[in-house]
Design a protein that fits this description.
mainly alpha; 19 helices; 2 strands; single chain; two-stranded antiparallel sheet
């Protein structure tokens, strides 16, 4: 009788199925099935390395259906071993009956089932899995309510390791399977950074739009966990822009409408802060169209931003780089700016900023500026008016001086005439002994 071992049980199971050695109704033909079943009863006492060896054998026979039953049992026990809180390394996977029985007893408390499952010691041990068997193992883990955070970490580890040095076709196939498996997990257990890296790889592999959309559907709800570096994705070839603006707009749309998480105030503020940094990065791009820049600054509601300082700086840079914009385009871009959310310093800067249209400036300044403009436009009219007033005043002053001069000359002439008349009367008085002055007769003193 052939000895059955963990490294040969899968091969024997497949051979028994192929040679029809699983039935008792054929005389002269030995039945291996009961022997295999009896051997598998002790699978819970196998060591970790024995489980891995049996799984490797199953993988080599994956195209045969006869061994699927044993594959399920091996995968189940492997995952149960990993989920046991007493298993922290391969050396803890002892074949000793008592030690394993102790591990099974302590795992009865479901709340503590994942205390040690966060350890990544087994990640490298399962890198031998081919993509089809990986799919089965991960789905079984999920069905066992295995820690989704650990599963996602393993998937990224597996993907990065397998794709290193692999052929293009293998990279694409591996990426597709990993994406599909990540979609089964709780989004809160997935690393946002790793998703962005996965997206970059998928773009580099020129994968289908549907695959890219699936990755973006995972990234969008986690956008508040991202940093500015994650968003600076180079623009697709032929677009001319420095960064992929459409990618960012799609993520924000998913963040608002495609996720199941509550949009709290803190989450909105984090996304707004990151978006303002992104705006400052893309504003100097001379190839960024006004409609694209406007879409970026209007994609968030006004309530998401506590301050508009960064938004103003981005607008300022964009308007200076794109000096040829029409007034209509400038107004359309600047209408988002909220003066009440600008710091005092930048508000003063805005009032003196010549690249901003007057409609984008504070109302009080615009009113004052409008008045000054009106005055300047009416300068010629005012000049003519004041010149006319001055000329009229000068004429009046000259006329008044002329009248006064004439009055003075008349008085002086009258005095001269009176003097002449007084001289004639005095001569007459001397003759008559009396004289008259101012129509009053005075008599000379008798005793002089």
């Amino acid at each position: 009788m052939v000895e059955i071992t963990p490294s040969s049980v899968a091969l024997l199971c497949s051979a028994a199925h192929f040679l029809e050695m699983e039935c008792d109704d054929r005389p002269g033909t030995p039945n291996l099935k009961p022997h295999i079943e009896k051997f598998l009863e002790g699978i819970r006492f196998w060591t970790w390395s024995e489980l891995l060896e049996a799984l490797k054998q199953c993988q080599g026979l994956f195209s045969f259906k006869g061994y699927l039953t044993i594959l399920d049992r091996i995968v189940d026990h492997l995952i149960q071993r990993l989920a046991s809180p007493g298993i922290t390394s391969p050396y803890s996977c002892s074949s000793n009956r008592s030690s394993f029985q102790f591990s099974c007893d302590t795992s009865s408390n479901n709340s503590g089932r994942n205390n040690c499952s966060g350890a990544a010691w087994w990640f490298e041990h399962l890198l031998f899995l081919k993509i089809d068997l990986l799919d089965k193992v991960i789905r079984t883990m999920i069905s066992y309510d295995f820690d989704h955070g650990v599963v996602s970490r393993f998937l990224f580890y597996y993907h990065n390791s397998i794709c290193l040095g692999a052929a293009q076709a293998e990279k694409i196939e591996t990426t597709k399977v990993v994406i599909n498996l990540l979609l089964l997990l709780d989004l809160r257990s997935i690393s946002c950074k790793e998703l962005f890296n996965l997206n970059r790889i998928a773009i580099g592999l020129k994968m289908s739009r549907s695959c890219i959309n699936e990755i973006e559907s995972l990234i969008g709800p986690l956008l508040d966990q991202a940093t500015i570096d994650y968003l600076l994705l180079p623009s697709p070839h032929g677009r001319g822009r420095a960064y992929d603006v459409d990618f960012v707009l799609r993520l924000i749309h998913i963040f608002f409408f495609g996720g199941s998480f509550e949009l709290t105030s803190n989450r909105l503020k984090r996304v707004a802060k990151m978006m303002d940094l992104f705006l400052v990065e893309v504003a100097p791009d001379p190839h960024l169209k006004p409609s694209e820049f406007e879409a970026l600054i209007t994609v968030l509601p006004d309530t998401a931003r506590e301050s508009h300082d960064q938004l103003y700086l981005a607008m300022d840079m964009y308007l200076k780089v794109h000096a040829g914009l029409s007034e209509k385009e400038k107004k359309s871009i600047c209408c988002t700016l909220n003066h009440e959310k600008l710091s005092a310093e930048l508000l003063r800067h805005l009032t003196r900023n010549l690249v901003f249209p007057s409609e984008a400036k504070p109302r009080a300044y615009v009113t004052r500026q409008s008045r000054m403009k009106t005055l300047l436009q009416e300068n010629d009219h005012l000049k003519n008016f004041f010149d006319s007033m001055f000329r009229k005043s000068f004429k009046n002053m000259e006329a008044k001086e002329d009248v006064e001069k004439r009055s003075y000359d008349a008085e002086e002439l009258r005095g001269d005439l009176e003097g002449m008349q007084s001289g004639t009367q005095l001569a007459s008085v001397k003759k008559s002994g009396s004289y008259i002055m101012n129509n009053v007769m005075y008599l000379p003193k008798l005793c002089s």
